[in-house]
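Journal club prep — side note

Before the paper discussion, L.F. wants everyone to see what a predicted structure for a comparable chain looks like in token form. Sequence:
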Amino acid sequence: MTQALRQQLLPIVTVALFLLLLFISIGHLLYESTAFKDALIASDVAKLAEIFERIDQKCKIINFEHRHNHIDFLTVKEFVGSEIGSMNLAYPSAWEGPYVKDNPTMQEEFYQIVRTKKGYFIVPGDGVELSNGKVVGKDIVFSAKSDIEAMAQDPEQLMFEGKVLAARVNTSGSAIASFLQENILRASGNRYQLEQPEETSRMC
């Protein structure tokens, strides 16, 4: 190879190496950004699970009104009645809000609590794109039959590098509500049985 040819190839090789390093750096930054995103989701979900555990211990969560419930009410300090947002509480007077300064979001979407046959679960909001390329509400759809605990063990769904992107919400107040309802129905039935002979004698 002549000296002249070397001088001509040197700039080309230098530019090629620079572009290669640039593409590698961009790819690394993109991976880091998606990895950070899922790590943040896992952190938010864990914090929300801890908050709802505290709420359930104090207030006894009965249920949530909808299939998909936005978590947009944790900044509330006081409220009237037994319902806050879409959540029903057995002991609303034990509320200790606000639990956060700002309700957490990801990609401008609130986190949500979804209702399935296996219970209630905190998951990212619909429209959130995960690092695996799946979009919640489009590629990952939650229904009554969804097994979210199994989905949280699947890297193609709600797991990223060993971190789960979903958490169960306990509703210990549901047992209290069922107990009270059964006793009300039982009391109503006993009252009907007591009143029935009086109605029968009146008809005679």
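L.F.'s comment for the group: Residues 172-204 form one domain. Keep this in mind when we get to the figures.
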